[in-house]
Amino acid sequence: MKTIRKMLKNNKGATAIEYGLIAALIAVAAIGAMKGLGTQLNTSFNNISGKLANP
Predict the structure, then answer these.
(1) What is the DSSP letter of 49?
(2) Given this model, what pLDDT does residue 17 score?
(3) pLDDT, position 36
(4) 6-49 residue pLDDT tens
(5) Whole-angstrom Cα distance, residue 42 to residue 34?
(6) How far apart are CA 41 and CA 35, in angstroms?
(7) In angstroms, rounded to a whole number, what is the distance separating the alpha carbons of residues 35 and 28?
(8) d(CA 12, CA 36)
(9) What is residue 54's three-state secondary structure?
(10) What whole-number distance in Å separates Cα of residue 22 and Cα of residue 18?
(11) Sequential DSSP letters for 3-33
C-alpha cells in the first residue's frame, strides 16, 4: 500500500508531459506566425523586385 501511495505522490512524469505540451503549443503558434509573416515578406520582396526590374 505504501508503494502505491508513493507512486501517486510522484508527479515528475506529469510535469514533464505538461512541459512537453506547452512546448508543442508554442511551436505550433510560432509556425503559424512565421507562415503568415513569410507570405507578407514574399509579397513585399516581389513588389520590390518588380520595381527594380522596371525602373
Answers:
(1) H
(2) 82
(3) 85
(4) 656 666 666 778 888 999 999 999 999 998 888 889 999 999 99
(5) 12
(6) 10
(7) 11
(8) 37
(9) coil
(10) 6
(11) HHHHHHH--HHHHHHHHHHHHHHHHHHHHHH
